[in-house]
DNA sequence: CCAAAAGATGCAATCGATTGCAGCATTGTT
DNA sequence: AACAATGCTGCAATCGATTGCATCTTTTGG
């Protein structure tokens, strides 16, 4: 394995001092070097295939141009777009991201956090939804830079970037009311997620405002199976089942589809369903799902923007950026019977 | 922002030399230090909350414990499980991964590759499907360690970990033949992907073996829209359309669903469809999709294993690991009319 | 009881790039 | 012509951990 080309090799070829090479190669310090020298150095660098060693640079500058991204689970379809949104902002600015999955385990989260600290990441983007642990508080107190995405900061003064979930729920309820539905049921996600509560509260408020009968059923997790189980329970318990379901997310809505089908009911003729997230393939299910689209890519990009701002300007404002969501009306909602 | 705790701080508290701290903290060198000293150092480290700076370590040892993972697009549902499989092997061994997306652009791939080289990653896992560029060749020649996953190494002597696609296609064809289908059509993915060709060739071979009429239609990309377009063309062109479709992947199969529906045909009564990948939600489409399941998580884990082996034992064997796939029979295939 | 071996720790160079400061050369000013 | 200002480059310390070697202490064996 051939030894790597270093700044010293370039300096030798270009006939200058390593320090000069460093200045010539760097956009910010380039102006301190004679223009002729810059081209000479650049040519030597190209000729040797020199790539600055960012480890060495990182040691000296104590900045690694790396961001840690903490998410629950990459195979949950909302996270890939968030991650890509993050990268789309970071990449052009010379930053890389290291993505880790906690599988919603506090222990794992803490150890992954430490491992990223050890790697000297310049900051964190945190998307793990559950609150109630002290990690972020401690991080804040020890001067770590971070921003929350798709979750509330839960009292810790980090910036947070979230979708306007409440508005999405309002729009769903309004849409359903317009179709003549009078009794709505909401399938609420796990209460450990701040988004679950926001959505449930908005649901109750919206129904109250529009004079609709509101029922809320809690689900233990955001999954297809749990949605199916919840809907099964509703169908097998209630004498007059609701004519419309507002699901906490698309996975739960999908579970509702399955339950309906298993009970010989059709959507939207018997029951209208609206999901939340507009996850990939939401339009490909049968019926194509009416759902609220959150701008996940933008959420990611925006969180990256806030983080870099925090890093480069050394100020952290506990701002809360709320991005608009959009109700996508497809075929799973129709007039009430 | 409080200054970070360094090895020197620990040394001072423990009353020893920094070098001793280094040895005491490291599992491999711990035996060189007196047991009492080790506990004293460890206690001092814990007390100060010392985390070794892996940048500094990396500079000295020229190993960053970081792996670069190059994929086309994280939002393509087959990649999250691969990435998680990789991490599941890497994480417990102290490695992290940096995932980058090329969006199938050669230019992007090259620049991302260089940026990862600059970050001194210890090796690469490459999943970008298209061959025909020289990047991996050059990488090999300059001693870079890598393994290919879900694609062939295309002549470059890197190890490759792939699913047994040919077998999956054989199983599909066999299944369809068993249901009485005599004329099969294969929707082939873009020919720049090695997997496309493997699958198409297996399809032709299997049909020949079983005395079935085989047609192959090329698709410009692996997408729902392209699958729909291809099936539309078939339905609107051929006098007697095929009774069964073997799609190059699930996305194409989903497009076939849409086309069928648009033409008033039902699956599987009019046309049977089998997909490839068993992507998330394949069972949730209507009808639930018969498809070939590739062990993506295992593919990822196995590629990580081979890479670490290559790194730690400094040997690269151009082996080709082929993991078994499984035909998952659901509701999109039925007896021929 | 002394020499040799083994054990434990300190010392200092090293990894590769960055950067404040010093020094030299050139240009400009009066 | 003398001096200041400016521009350019070299020098060397620095970031934090690792590690071969030297040194010192303790144990072992004859």
- Mean pLDDT over all positions of chain A: 94
Biggest pleated-sheet summary of chain A:
6 strands, parallel
* CATH homologous superfamily descriptor of the largest domain in chain A: Response regulator
Low-confidence stretches of chain A: none
Strand order of the largest sheet of chain A: 2-1-3-4-5-11
Assembly state here? homodimer
The count of DSSP E runs of length 2 or more, i.e. the number of strands of chain A, is 12
Task: Give Rg of chain A in angstroms.
Answer: 26 Å
CATH fold annotation of the largest domain in chain A: Rossmann fold
How much strand of chain A?
A: 15-25%
CATH architecture of the largest domain in chain A: 3-Layer(aba) Sandwich
Helix content estimate of chain A? 40-55%
Net shape of chain A: elongated
Number of helical segments with 4 or more residues of chain A: 12
**Whole-number total of structural domains of chain A:** 3
Name the biggest interface: A-B, 47 and 47 residues
